[in-house]
Amino acid sequence: MDEYEIYEIECKKIRKENRKLLNSFRIYLGSKKLSKKTVDKHVSNIDFYINEFLLYEEPLKAKEGINDLDHFLGYWFIRKAMWASVISIKENITSLKHFYTYMHAIDEIELEELKTMKEEIKESKDEWLETIRKYDDPDTDFEDIW
């Protein structure tokens, strides 16, 4: 087997795990008395994060993604998601907070990891939002963004 075949096999295995994880995340969100529309939005955002972004370059499990928010929200999402906007970044931040809080609740991540992630969001959010604003401005030179 070549590297790509190994990568594909690993991604398939992770996607199967992710289906179960997303189903249980949906139930968790439902228990929080969120509307169906809100639950669907969070699940969709997390599905994109764990099944597209985390598998894009190498197969990473959802719990490993807690350390990749800056790359995702400050660069990859802006470049790869046609719907990237200030609003969608804010929505993804909320979804990721819910998701990794859930991951802590099921003992997949440590409390310290969750706290570190939330601190990173607090410190980087304004920069991510400014980056998408610049990216969407036709007068901005991309070299000035990254």
Polypeptide structure, described:
With 146 residues, the chain is mainly alpha-helical. The chain has one domain (3-144). Helices cover 74% and strands 0% of the residues. The protein has helices at 3-31, 36-56, 69-80, 86-105, 111-136. Helix 1 (3-31) runs antiparallel to helix 2 and helix 3 (69-80) packs parallel to helix 5.
**Chain oligomer state:** single chain
Radius of gyration: 16 Å
Tally of discrete structural domains: 1
Structural class: mainly alpha
The largest β sheet comes out as: none
By DSSP, the count of extended strands is: 0
Distance between the termini: 37 Å
Summarize the structure.
With about 150 residues, this protein is mainly alpha-helical. Helix content is about 75%, strand content about 0%. The chain contains five helices and no strands.
Keywords:
single chain, 146 residues, mainly alpha, 5 helices, 74% helix, 0% strand, globular
Secondary-structure map with pairings?
Blueprint: H1 3-31, H2 36-56, H3 69-80, H4 86-105, H5 111-136
